[in-house]
Amino acid sequence: MGNRIRSFSKRSNQVSEIHIKRPLKCTEFCEKPSSPTHEHFPNQDETTLLKNPELSPQQDNTSEIQVKSAEVMNTISSPNLVKAQQKLIEKLENELSNIRNELADTKRSFEQKLVKSRSKTASIRAETALIIYELRENISEIQLENANLLNKLHKYEKSNPELENGAVYSELILTLSEQVSSANEKLRDANCEIESLKQDKNVPNSVSDT
Is 136 in the same domain as 197? Predict the structure, then answer.
């Protein structure tokens, strides 16, 4: 004996038929308010839900999904697959270690080349600075020699006014002029060489820069 009621679920938008085994007590499907003559009984085990045929495939699908999930879990946890995964991890770790070693070797090689390059550059800068210093010393000597020659010429002119138009005086003037001209050429060459060296960005402007 029992009662049959139909209940409409707003959530699933479906009508379900419920068979009440005991005297009328409500289940969670009832939407009536509680009262002394209308008691709510939330325990679903006390009712037998006669589900619509449309809901049966859902239950079957759920069971099928559970079975497939179990199969997948069994496959994942199988010893062969675990061993394969461990081998793959070891292989990747070895490859990563080799790459790190290669990077370390490349870094060391680059640092060694950089040190050699800097040492060579410093040596070139020092040698170039010494050359510039020597050239400037030569220029100073040439300038001093020119000044001395001009002084000698002026002194000779003052002490020998009578030889102004003479052959000896002319020869002396020619000799001194050639010496002055040669000194000026050396001076120009030295200046050109200094300017050429200055164009090199690695060359300091003075010996003190090194």
Answer: yes
d(CA 46, CA 200): 100
Question: Across the beta sheet with 47-50, what order do the strands follow?
Answer: 3-9, 14-20, 47-50
The residue segments making up the domain with residue 157 are: 127-209
**152 contacts: CB under 8 Å, gap ≥ 6:** 176
Domain end, chosen from 33, 56, 76, is at 76
| Residues 21 and 47 sit within 8 Å (Cβ to Cβ) | yes
In a domain, 7, yes or no: yes
> 142 and 72 in one domain?
no
Do residues 128 and 196 make contact, with C-beta atoms less than 8 angstroms apart? no
Q: What phi-psi label fits residue 20: left (phi over 0), alpha (psi between -120 and 50 degrees) or beta?
A: beta
* pLDDT by position in tens, the chain (length 210): 445 556 656 566 666 665 555 445 565 566 666 665 666 555 444 444 444 444 444 445 566 676 667 666 666 666 777 777 788 888 888 888 888 888 888 888 888 888 888 888 888 888 888 888 888 887 788 778 778 877 877 777 777 666 555 566 667 677 777 777 777 777 777 778 777 776 665 544 444 443
Structural domain ending residue among the three candidates 50, 76, 102? 76
Q: How many CB atoms lie within 10 A of CB 66?
A: 10
CA–CA separation, 118 and 121 (whole Å): 5
